[in-house]
């Protein structure tokens, strides 16, 4: 039994935090009220000033297993998630071997059961080995619970292949997640085409490389009657393209935005800092501002990190040679608080909606709330404390993040899932 | 104020540039002496680390170092462990163990000399990194222009060609602007990025660019080896639209304009053969001045690694953003 006293309770439905005591018994919320009596044998936690909210869910992570366990494993990845207040994730299938068959998916899910303290779901490939040619074993993966199909990291280049996959898989209630990029336009360098790419002498990737595929894939989904989910949008016009399609209402489209695309611009790359090298690349302040508007408006249904660990050795190369991607699970919630909630740009209700409730709805999972009778799946967040993202603090196996050694306001103090306290600080 | 490394033009202060150009004048005077060698860097070692092919820059640095009495070692990339998959980082660790004083580096990846500089106590000189910077080329260009225009402020230099892939264009334009020279770009729309700084007029039409009334026409080499895709239909068409044709040379001669080129020249592409004999062509002056500029740079830098890390101007901006404020 656990009594959280004087917590400020956040919900996706209310911009106001309600103060109260929350009594947890056997993994369920038994009572919410003011000045609840401490039952015998119960532990009291003074949560005064701290925010209690449903735990986050990240629908776009790379746990690198199987194949790249030197970067991340299911265990270290899920511990990084817990460290950041996240109690469920969806893995991307760009592992080695790629998750393009029931056998590969079954192995991952089996491993996850043994090695993670949180539910780990996985997406499956659209095409075999993510090569964009032959369809993956779609139904076999669905049988194991896969809902999301994606060749993430690579756009399914041939629209005819994607259309056929959409026509086929939609019958099984699956949806498609699109990494949007015309590779011939984007090039391999992961830097926005703009003032910075000129200055640094690196071939830039124009935003239109993303916008073209956003539009293409939504059109394909419309033609197939499929649901398409647009991953990690980075550009203003990309956001506006999605907004326009959503406003028509004749195609099922959802979209996500990553914290780093809201926070950083290509200027941050500065002196070739590979911690800012990611795909899609960081763009301009105008893009960041537009993405934030899109998040507030609901153009973006969810926040997802695109947690992409790489070893220090790989990232310590020069900008051209270093791989794309940054980690995000350890830092996402604190950084969202520090840069957006604390300065009043986003309310807690929106964070809960976009990073806890909607991602679970996308995946067809139950949505946790802080209400009587609900299973406990929550985070207690201290808005006054600070977090310093030292290497020791990070639980991800890799620490390729711009936040390394930064101190931000806010701290994840407690993560509870069912009867288990996953994290307590 | 001496520096450990010379990585870019962007971070050089005007006084530093003036100092290097002055020093270069003194070194150039040495060339008329029967003994051209001085003992300034006696006992010092210079390692030439060229990952890309180079004739002019490589030999120019080598001659410069030898005239200062330094020992020169050529790191033979083609026969090194790099061909066995050794990373640059590992190579640098090896080189650091050899305690060389200077590393002159050329690489196709932008930013790589900076990365090396952060890992060694040697003075690192960027001899060209991808399409990023080529600071000694910029210095020798400025020196060559100053020989003709001792006060170059207000003069105009038109840089023609492949701006997109050109480290020379970036470095030289930055340096000339620091000296008060106006710079404009001319080239095919596919090779002149639309994001060049607003201070540099961007032309895609030769007539319009000439109407801007340049004093110097600076032709860039068409770098076919960097073009993994086709940026213009043919060299014949390039020459006709952007090259100095015989007819255009006549106009340039009438106006008394100077012509420069970083070399090697693609004859019949950037310029017609006759340009090589044009009395106001500064192309060989550039080569000659390269040696004295590189002597000035080697003499100026101070190896040892006890100096604060040299920051490029973008890195200086970065200092404030280290407490990340979007």
From TrEMBL, chain A:
Binds 2 Zn(2+) ions per subunit. Zn(2+) 1 binds at residues 60, 62, 152, 306. Zn(2+) 2 binds at residues 152, 179, 232. InterPro entries: DHOase, DHOase/Allantoinase_Hydrolase, DHOase_cat, Dihydroorotase_CS, Metal-dep_hydrolase_composite, Metal_Hydrolase. GO terms for biological process: 'de novo' UMP biosynthetic process; purine nucleobase catabolic process. GO terms for molecular function: allantoinase activity; dihydroorotase activity; zinc ion binding. It catalyses: (S)-dihydroorotate + H2O = N-carbamoyl-L-aspartate + H(+). It comes from the Bacteria. Its EC number is 3.5.2.3. One of its GO terms (cellular component) is cytoplasm. Substrate binds at residues 62-64, 94, 279, 310. Keywords: Hydrolase, Metal-binding, Pyrimidine biosynthesis, Zinc. The active site is at 306. Residues 49-236 form the Dihydroorotase catalytic domain. Pathway: Pyrimidine metabolism; UMP biosynthesis via de novo pathway; (S)-dihydroorotate from bicarbonate: step 3/3. Its cofactor is Zn(2+). Catalyzes the reversible cyclization of carbamoyl aspartate to dihydroorotate. HAMAP family: PyrC_classI_B. Belongs to the metallo-dependent hydrolases superfamily. DHOase family. Class I DHOase subfamily. This is Dihydroorotase.
UniProtKB/TrEMBL annotation, chain B:
GO terms for molecular function: amino acid binding; aspartate carbamoyltransferase activity. The keyword Transferase applies. GO terms for biological process: 'de novo' pyrimidine nucleobase biosynthetic process; 'de novo' UMP biosynthetic process; amino acid metabolic process. GO terms for cellular component: cytosol. InterPro entries: Asp/Orn_carbamoyltranf_P-bd, Asp/Orn_carbamoylTrfase, Asp/Orn_carbamoylTrfase_sf, Asp_carbamoyltransf, Asp_carbamoyltransf_Asp/Orn-bd. It is an enzyme of class 2 (transferase). Pathway: Pyrimidine metabolism; UMP biosynthesis via de novo pathway; (S)-dihydroorotate from bicarbonate: step 2/3. Residues 154-301 form the Aspartate/ornithine carbamoyltransferase Asp/Orn-binding domain. It catalyses: carbamoyl phosphate + L-aspartate = N-carbamoyl-L-aspartate + phosphate + H(+). Keywords: Pyrimidine biosynthesis, Transferase. Heterododecamer (2C3:3R2) of six catalytic PyrB chains organized as two trimers (C3), and six regulatory PyrI chains organized as three dimers (R2). Belongs to the aspartate/ornithine carbamoyltransferase superfamily. ATCase family. Catalyzes the condensation of carbamoyl phosphate and aspartate to form carbamoyl aspartate and inorganic phosphate, the committed step in the de novo pyrimidine nucleotide biosynthesis pathway. This is Aspartate carbamoyltransferase. The lineage of its organism: Bacteria, Pseudomonadati, Bacteroidota, Cytophagia, Cytophagales.
């Amino acid at each position: 039994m656990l009594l959280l006293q004087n917590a400020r309770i956040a919900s996706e439905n209310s911009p106001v935090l309600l103060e109260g005591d929350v009594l947890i018994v056997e993994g369920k919320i038994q009572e919410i009220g003011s000045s609840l009596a401490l039952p015998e044998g119960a532990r009291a936690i003074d949560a005064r000033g701290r925010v209690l909210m449903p735990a986050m869910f990240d629908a776009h992570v790379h746990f690198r297993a199987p194949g790249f366990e030197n970067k991340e494993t299911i265990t270290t990845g899920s511990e990084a998630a817990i460290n950041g207040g996240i109690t469920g994730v969806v893995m991307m299938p760009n592992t080695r071997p790629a998750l393009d068959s029931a056998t590969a998916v079954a192995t991952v899910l089996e491993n996850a059961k043994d090695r993670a303290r949180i539910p780990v779901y996985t997406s499956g490939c659209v095409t075999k080995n993510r090569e964009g040619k032959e369809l993956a074993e779609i139904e076999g993966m669905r049988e194991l619970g896969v809902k999301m199909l994606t060749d993430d990291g690579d756009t399914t280049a041939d629209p005819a292949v994607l259309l056929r996959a959409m026509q086929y898989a939609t019958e099984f209630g699956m949806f498609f997640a699109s990494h949007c990029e015309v590779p011939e336009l984007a090039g391999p360098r992961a830097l926005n085409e703009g003032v910075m790419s000129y200055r640094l002498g690196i071939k830039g990737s124009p935003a239109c490389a993303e916008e073209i595929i956003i539009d293409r894939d939504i059109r394909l989904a419309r033609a197939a009657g499929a649901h398409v989910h647009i991953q990690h949008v980075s550009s203003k016009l990309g956001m506006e393209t999605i907004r326009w399609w959503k406003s028509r209402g004749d195609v099922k489209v959802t979209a996500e935005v990553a914290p780093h695309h809201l926070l950083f611009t290509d200027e941050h790359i500065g002196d070739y800092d590979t911690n800012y090298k990611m795909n899609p690349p960081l763009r301009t302040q105008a893009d960041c501002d537009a993405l934030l508007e899109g998040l507030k408006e609901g153009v973006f249904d969810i926040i997802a990190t695109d947690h992409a660990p790489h070893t220090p050795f790989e990232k310590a190369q020069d900008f051209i040679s270093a791989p794309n991607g940054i980690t995000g699970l350890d830092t996402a919630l604190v950084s969202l608080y520090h840069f957006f909630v604390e300065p009043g740009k986003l309310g807690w209700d929106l964070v809960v909606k976009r990073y806890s409730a909607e991602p679970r709805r996308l995946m067809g999972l139950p949505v946790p709330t802080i209400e009587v009778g609900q299973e406990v799946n929550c985070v207690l967040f201290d808005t006054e404390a600070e977090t310093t993202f030292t290497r020791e603090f990070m639980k991800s196996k890799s620490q390729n993040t711009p936040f390394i050694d930064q101190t931000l306001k806010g701290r994840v103090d407690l993560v509870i899932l069912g009867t288990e306290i996953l994290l307590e600080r | 104020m001496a520096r450990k490394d010379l990585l870019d033009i962007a971070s050089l202060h005007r006084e530093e540039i003036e100092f290097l150009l002055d020093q270069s004048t003194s070194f150039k005077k040495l060339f008329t002496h029967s003994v051209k060698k001085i003992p300034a860097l006696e006992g010092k070692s210079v390692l030439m680390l060229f990952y890309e092919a180079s004739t002019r820059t490589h030999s120019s640095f080598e001659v410069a170092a030898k005239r200062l009495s330094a020992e020169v070692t050529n790191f033979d990339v083609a026969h090194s462990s790099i061909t066995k998959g050794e990373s640059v980082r590992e190579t640098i660790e090896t080189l650091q163990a050899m305690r060389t004083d200077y590393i002159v580096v050329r690489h196709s990846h932008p930013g790589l000399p900076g990365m090396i500089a952060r890992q060694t106590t040697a003075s690192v000189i960027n001899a060209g990194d991808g399409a990023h910077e080529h600071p000694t080329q910029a210095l020798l260009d400025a020196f060559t222009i100053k020989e003709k225009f001792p006060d170059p402020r207000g003069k105009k230099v038109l840089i023609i060609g492949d701006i997109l892939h050109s480290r020379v264009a970036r470095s030289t334009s930055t340096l000339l602007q620091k000296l008060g020279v106006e710079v404009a770009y001319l080239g095919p729309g596919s090779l002149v990025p639309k994001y060049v700084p607003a201070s540099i007029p961007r032309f895609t039409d030769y007539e319009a660019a000439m109407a801007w009334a340049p004093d110097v026409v600076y032709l860039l080499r068409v770098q076919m080896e960097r073009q993994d895709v086709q940026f213009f239909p043919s060299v014949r068409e390039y020459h006709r639209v952007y090259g100095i044709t015989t007819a255009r040379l006549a106009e340039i001669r009438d106006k008394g304009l100077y012509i420069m080129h970083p070399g090697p020249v693609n004859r019949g592409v950037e310029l017609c053969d006759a340009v090589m004999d044009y009395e106001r062509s500064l192309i060989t002056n550039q080569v000659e001045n390269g040696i004295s500029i590189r002597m000035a740079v080697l003499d100026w830098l101070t190896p040892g690694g006890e100096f604060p890390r040299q920051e490029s101007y973008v890195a200086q901006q970065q200092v404030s953003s280290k407490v990340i404020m979007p």
